[in-house]
Specification:
This protein is an alpha+beta fold. The protein has a single domain, classed as Cytochrome P450 (Cytochrome p450, Orthogonal Bundle). It is built from 18 helices and 11 strands. The strands form 4 sheets. Strands 1-2-7-4 form a 4-stranded mixed β-sheet. The chain has a 3-stranded antiparallel β-sheet with strand order 3-11-8. A two-stranded antiparallel ribbon has the order 5-6. The longest helix has 32 residues. The chain is globular and about 70 Å long. The structure holds protoporphyrin IX containing FE (HEM). The site of protoporphyrin IX containing FE (HEM) has 25 residues, from helix 12 and helix 17.
Length: 517
């Protein structure tokens, strides 16, 4: 009996000691923020706080559930890192528009892989708002993404689109299935590579596939990078770097490929009128008097981000929209009727037709509303601010759940339904009302000065690809309906990628002959 009592006492002492050390540890590492007018906070787990929510897949859904249960503005934490979760259009507007400058940097404390080209310190997307970001944005808009540059590269995209169309006709003839997302990745990757560096990545020597594989691998690393930027921040304090080896290995492969492309440009620079983005960036790099001194690694970092930002976004969006159209044959028919009445049946749709096809534009917008490629946006509070009547302290990480904003039943009628008609402006509603509603509640390309600079190009990629697939083909799938289950970490993808067999409706040769842009 005495032995049991001693053991019992030891056990109690051990538990007390354990609880005490945990308390000391958490007090030492994770100081609890003082609650001074902060937004409400749902119950959290000891020490890790709300980390489990951040790591759940897909996290935009758990965040959506959380905000509809509690509040559209919530205060969360992972360990001692404060996070504010925003889930309503009006609060997102206060952040991204009214206080744009204060929230124009993404997560400024996220650890970067110092020497990596991928997720590294050379990036434009992760760069804090400041001189470097402004300088690069200007180059980007002037030489690639602005209206003038988009017009200048129209022929390149026209050629790539023909290759895409020819592939679909070939598949139709052979009665083979098409993985829509994969084929779209080829189209966007090839187009962006040619727009940036003026030449095609060859399919023959495997260069194009190498780039696509790298893009896919980089996207799968994005989730690990998210973990690295939350848990990793604390581990880094004690000298542990998460996933460094994996990220550096991909970075090395990008480096080899890009070094080769840059050397080709240095040895054979394009003439003034044919300059591409790489020529322009190399000139700036060599110019002692440039407003900002950029490095070779920054050129490589930007190239990687443009590939990632431009190709998967458009590929996933196209896949979701095509799936919605297959599941809604009446909408597909209405869209086809519009294309046939404007473009006809004897030539293939091209990007100059898009402005004359309001229903196609509405279909694309509605697809982006329901299936935003990046359902979660992040920002950092450079200074403390009041949002929605609550205090947001300096350095708080902000998460904007655009998925929840664009499916908010208080702002959208039947928010989960695919109804492109909601984007056709009715005379009774008026253009101004519609504009205001959209600026508050429609965020597929984010917003404010860090909003997507490639939105016009994105609309083009998606619009013409959907146009061709609807105008020229019927689609057979396995089963009655496409499975719309979601997956993805920071991005939103189809859990079951769309595969369908195209059945040609119009004469491919006739359409190619008269499809010259
Ligand atoms: C359907 C296609 C696209 C979608 C849905 C999309 C979506 C987005 C979103 C949500 C953001 C974050 C915005 C924010 O934080 O407020 C973003 C940023 C960005 N996107 Fe896109 N994007 C698309 C196409 C493109 C294309 C074609 C390019 C260029 C080739 C591009 C380049 C970028 C860049 C460089 C940024 C970072 C901007 C900055 O940090 O200042 N995107 N995009």
């Amino acid at each position: 009996m005495a032995a049991i009592t001693v053991e019992f006492q030891l056990c109690i002492i051990f538990i007390l000691l354990w609880v005490f050390s945990l308390k000391c540890l958490s007090a030492f590492f994770f100081k609890k923020p003082k609650d001074c007018g902060l937004p409400p906070s749902p119950q959290s787990l000891p020490i890790i706080g709300h980390l489990h929510l951040l790591l759940s897949v897909p996290c935009h859904r758990s965040f959506q559930k959380l905000s509809s249960k509690y509040d559209p503005l919530l205060h969360l934490r992972t360990f001692n890192i404060p996070i504010v979760l925003v889930s309503s259009g009006s609060m997102a507007y206060e952040l991204l528009r009214t206080n744009d400058l204060n929230f124009a940097t993404r997560d400024h404390e996220a650890p970067v892989m110092e020497k990596s080209i991928l997720f590294g310190s050379f990036g434009f997307v992760s760069a804090p708002y400041g001189d470097y970001w402004r300088f690069m944005k200007k180059i980007l808009v002037t030489n690639l993404l602005g209206g003038h540059s988009i017009e200048r590269t129209r022929l390149i995209r026209g050629e790539e689109l023909k290759t895409f169309g020819a592939m679909l006709f070939d598949k139709a003839e052979k009665n083979q299935t098409v993985d829509v997302g994969k084929e779209m990745m080829k189209l966007t990757n090839n187009s962006i590579c040619r727009m940036i560096m003026g030449r095609k990545c060859s399919e023959e020597n495997g260069e194009a596939k190498k780039i696509r594989d790298l893009v896919t691998k980089s996207l799968s690393l994005a989730r690990k990078f998210l973990i690295a930027s939350t848990v990793g921040r604390l581990l880094k304090k004690v000298g542990i770097s998460l996933f460094e080896k994996e990220i550096m290995e991909v970075s090395q492969r990008y480096d080899e490929l890009l070094e080769k492309i840059i050397k080709e440009h240095e040895e054979n620079p394009n003439k003034k009128e044919d300059k591409d983005m790489i020529d322009v960036l190399l000139e700036v790099c060599a110019d002692e008097n440039a407003d900002y001194k950029i490095t070779r690694n920054q050129i490589k970092g930007l190239f990687v981000e443009l590939l990632l930002g431009g190709s998967d976004t458009s590929a996933q969006t196209t896949q979701w929209i095509m799936a919605e159209l297959i599941n809604h044959p009446e909408i597909l028919k209405k869209l086809r009727d519009e294309i046939e009445s404007v473009v006809g049946k004897t030539r293939m749709i091209q990007e100059t037709d898009l402005s004359n096809l309001p229903y196609l534009q509405a279909v694309v917008k509605e697809g982006l509303r329901l299936h935003p490629h990046s359902p979660i946006l992040t920002r950092n509070a450079t200074e403390g601010r009041k949002i929605g009547g609550f205090n947001i302290p300096q350095n708080t990480t902000i998460i904007i759940n655009t998925y929840a904003v664009m499916r908010d039943p208080n702002s959208w009628e039947d928010p989960d339904e695919f109804q492109p008609e909601r984007f056709i402006v009715s005379p009774s509603k008026g253009k101004e009302d519609e504009k205001e509603h959209l600026s508050l509640n429609y965020l597929p390309f984010g917003g404010g000065r860090r909003g997507c600079p490639g939105s016009n190009l994105g609309y083009i990629f998606v619009g013409v690809a959907i146009g061709i697939m609807v105008q020229c083909f019927d689609w057979r799938i396995n089963g009655e309906k496409v499975n719309m289950e979601e997956t993805g970490d920071l991005t939103l993808s189809m859990a079951h990628p769309l595969e369908g067999t195209p059945v040609a409706r119009i004469d491919p040769l006739a359409s190619f002959e008269s499809a010259e842009p």
